[in-house]
Structure formats: structure tokens, C-alpha cells
């Protein structure tokens, strides 16, 4: 068993939650995570966020659709990729999050013990 939870597993949980909340597209999710964790000195690498999204698609949890970013197709040419749950993706996501929660609880135990024992 790993010492602490893998960064990609950590990121995947947040990405699943963003999709559950219908919170945007890849870059928007990246920016939200960076904003949310800035106070903790953590900035998720763009490459890891996109690898995590790709893995969630490969695992059959998410699928992608494309659309223009703006509302005027005559002016807005930037295409964005939106992520959605597959037919059984919500159930797969729930199980994945449950598994990661077990890992997070174990990590919290290790960290709390380290603080108690050393500080």
C-alpha cells in the first residue's frame, strides 16, 4: 500500500465532484482547483488534470462533448470540451470515490499520528 494517496486519485475525486455539480470544462475545472488549493500551497499541474480526465473517460465513467465557448458562433470560435457521466458512470464514480475515501481516511490517520507524536 502506498504511503499517501496518489495525486491523480486525489484529482480524479475533485473532477468527479465538478462533473456532479455540472461545473464546466477541463480548463475551468483546472482553474477552480488551483483557486481552491492556492491557500494550501498546492497548484494541480495541468498535465495531471488532463491525464486524470482522460483516465476517467477510459474507465467509462465520463464521456466528452464539444461546443463553442461563447453563444455567438459567428464570433466565438473557441471550442471547449465538456465532460458528462456515461450511462453507468455515476455508479462507477460513486464506487471510485468510496475507495478513495478509504485511502484519504488512512492518510489522515497517518498525518494526525505524525502531528501528535512529533508536535
UniProtKB/TrEMBL annotation:
Coiled coil: none annotated. It comes from the Bacteria. InterPro entries: RTP (IPR003432), WH-like_DNA-bd_sf (IPR036388), WH_DNA-bd_sf (IPR036390). This is Replication termination protein.
Amino acid at each position: 500500500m502506498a504511503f499517501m494517496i496518489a495525486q491523480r486519485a486525489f484529482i480524479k475525486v475533485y473532477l468527479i465532484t465538478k462533473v456532479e455539480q455540472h461545473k464546466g470544462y477541463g480548463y475551468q475545472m483546472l482553474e477552480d482547483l488551483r483557486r481552491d488549493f492556492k491557500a494550501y500551497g498546492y497548484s494541480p499541474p495541468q498535465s495531471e488534470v488532463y491525464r486524470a480526465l482522460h483516465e476517467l473517460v477510459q474507465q467509462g465513467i465520463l464521456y466528452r462533448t464539444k461546443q463553442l465557448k461563447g453563444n455567438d458562433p459567428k464570433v466565438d470560435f473557441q471550442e471547449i470540451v465538456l465532460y458528462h457521466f456515461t450511462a453507468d458512470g455515476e455508479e462507477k464514480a460513486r464506487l471510485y470515490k468510496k475507495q478513495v475515501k478509504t485511502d484519504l481516511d488512512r492518510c489522515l490517520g497517518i498525518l494526525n499520528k505524525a502531528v501528535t507524536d512529533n508536535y
